[in-house]
Structures are given as C-alpha cells and as structure tokens.
Amino acid sequence: MTTILLNLFLMAILVFIVVMVMRTNRLFAVVVLSGAYSLICAAMFVNLDAVDVAFTEAAVGAGISTVLFLSAMAVLPSKEKQTTQSHTLTSNLTGLVVCILAGAVLMVAAFDLPAIGSPDAPVHQHVAPRYLTESDSVLHIPNVVTTVLASYRGFDTLGETIVVFTAGLGVFLLLCGATRTARRQRPEAEGEEAHDGK
Amino acid sequence: MMENNMILRVTTKILFAPIIIFGLYVQFHGDYGPGGGFQAGVIIAAAFILHALVFGLEAGRRLFPLWLNIVLLVAGVLIYGGVGVASMALNGLFLDYNVLATSPAAGQHIGILIVEFGVGLTVTTVMLLLFHAFAGFVPASSMQPDDEEAS
After folding, report:
1. Potential cystine with A54: which of A46, A144, A148, B9 (Cβ 3.0-4.6 Å)?
2. pLDDT of B149
3. What Cα–Cα distance (Å) separates residue A183 from each residue in A79, A144, A193?
4. ipTM score here?
5. Residue of B30, B39, B136 lying closest to A179 (CB–CB)
6. Mutation for B interface: A51, A65, A143, A195, most B CBs within 10 A
C-alpha cells in the first residue's frame, strides 16, 4: 500500500515537472527540470526494487545528461523561439484528441498485462527462473543483474558497448571536425586556443 | 570558467579522489551489489567533468589528454571483444567465460570482471569525449569575419 501511495506521489511530481517544462521557454530551466525528472524516476525505480536501473538513471539521466545539455546550451540561445502559428484552436484540439486516444489505447492494453511482480507472468516463466537459481548457487554471484548483463546476455552488452562507442565517436568527429574547420577559417581569432585543436 | 571561486576549487580538490574511488567501488563491486561498468563509467567521468568545469577545459585536457581519451575509448571495446576471443582460443565459445579459469564459477568471475572493466572504460571515455566536444564546440557561423560581436 505504501509503495502505491509513494509511487502516486512521485507520479504527481513527474506530471508537475512535465507541465513546468511545457510552460517555460527558458532552456536553462528546461535542462534543470529534466534532471529533476530523471532523479524522481530514479526514486521510483528504487521504490520498485530496480536498484541497478535507478542507479543508472540517477547517474546518467540526472547527472551526466544534465551536464551535457548545459554544455550544449553554451552554443544555443537562452530562450526557445516561440512559434506563432501553433496556438490555434484547431491544432490544440487535434493534439488533445490524439493524446487522449493514444492514452486510452495504452490504458486498455495495460489491463491485459499481468500484475506487477506476479510470479505467473510469462516473463518469469521462461529463462528467468534459471538465472535466479543458477546465479547464486552455481556462479556464486549474488547480483543477478550483473550475471544477466555480463554473462547470460554478454552478446547484448557487447553490442551496447559498441553502440556507445560508435555514438561517442560519431559525435566527436562531427563536432570536433566542425570546430577544426571553423578554426582553420579564422586561425588568428583563436590565437591562444588554436594549438589545442589536435 | 570558475577558476576564481575558491569554495568551488577547494571543494573540487577534496571531492575529486573520493568520487573516483566510489566509481571504482561501483565498478568492481558490481558482482555483489548494484552497479557495474555503465554506472561506474559515468561516475568516474563525472569526477573529470567536475574538474574541467571548475578549473577550465584546458586544465581538464591537460589532466586527461585527448590521445589518451581516444586510446582508452578503443581499448574498452577491444578488452570486451578480447575476452570473447580469448575464450574462443581456450576451446570455448565466444564470450563463454567458463573456460577462463580452472572452475566454471571462477571463470565466470574473471570474465565478468574484465568485461565490466571494458564497459566502464568505454563509457568513461565516451562521456568525457562528449563533454569536451560540446563544451569546446566552436560553431562555424560564429567565426565569420562579419560576425565579430556574436557571443
């Protein structure tokens, strides 16, 4: 019961943050609010006993992505540009109808899901029992998340690592290539910084 | 950046090592508690990003040079794949840790530890690379000669 109440409370905070994000046009506030959103999500995951996911969400979502957004903001204007034509009645109504329809479909579908933590759920019938019993007794590794991530699903994690690697390398090549081109065009303007471009 | 704020500088100097030690704890204690390579990589990167934010991008790059960043970025992926190749060389399947030691359980321990280390290395260096790419970004449009006063 307390779990559900706590989750409802956190959910209310999430909705509040989303409304705040929608209502402001200052990018700094949006970045900080999205960091807060991730932190509340992490609290929710802890509440659902998904400590590893909560850890990742707090470190990546609330920590690093906030910093990355802030550093990306340095090259953006501080205020979001207001679009004038998007506030007509018909466009708002269309959006509202689409949102309500999509939400209704999702809620109807959610009634078919098994209850949270139900041992009869299909996901807990397939390979999960083997992971849960084997991880501690055969491999002597108490944290099942780690064994699933690194051992049972080692191929997936290798793929994830390569995705992270490729994405980071791609962003680096795009941005630093642009920076280097810009410096080559105006070498004298960046006299004291030009040498660190390498 | 904020080189002149004494409180931030002293706090960063005090916090830098404990953050890295906590990151290493998360990295190598992932078998027994929550954590692992992804989380630890982000935490260790956060220590270096904090240093770069307070002491400036130049100081951050002196502490963790770009060539080292790129080398470790590639090394992380290679370590992960290398474990797979090593287990194949020991007559196992790709990423089959059982053959890495005398007993399957010990092999799994070693394999998971090395693989998580590779993941942590890649995540740390990717985060640092992204931070420096964004923070040191000079857009081409702001460098035009007729756009001198653009901030």
Report:
1. A46
2. 43
3. 27, 50, 9
4. 0.84
5. B136
6. A143
Task: From residue B5, give the alpha-carbon distance in Å to each of A77, B1, B73, B90.
Answer: 26, 10, 32, 56
CB-CB under 8 Å, B53 with A56 = no
Residue A58: inside a domain: yes
Q: B109 CA to chain A: closest CA distance, Å? A: 8
pLDDT, residue A188, reads: 55
Closest-CA residue to B72 (of B109, B21, B120, B142): B120
Number of helical (H) and strand (E) elements in chain B, helices listed first: 5, 0
CA–CA separation, B10 vs B29, rounded Å? 29
A79: helix, coil or strand?
strand
What are the Cα distances from residue B128, in Å, to A151, B25, B61, B69, B73? 27, 20, 10, 8, 10
pTM score over 0.95: no
pLDDT along chain B (151 residues), means of 10: 76 93 90 85 92 89 90 93 89 84 84 91 92 80 48 40
User: For testing the chain A interface, which of B1, B20, B83, B134 should be mutated: the one with the most A CBs within 10 Å?
Assistant: B134
B2's tokens: 């904020």
- Residue A1 CB neighbour total at 10 angstroms: 5
Run of H or E including A75: none
Is A154 a residue whose pLDDT tops 70? yes
- Which stretches does DSSP call E strand in A38-122? none
Q: Which residue of chain B is at minimal alpha-carbon distance from A50?
A: B34
Cβ neighbours of A179 in B, within 8 Å: 136-138
Residue A27's domain comprises: 1-78
Q: State the total domains in chain A.
A: 1
CB contact under 8 A, B38 and A56: yes
Residues of chain B found within 8 Å of residue A162, distances taken between Cβ atoms: 77
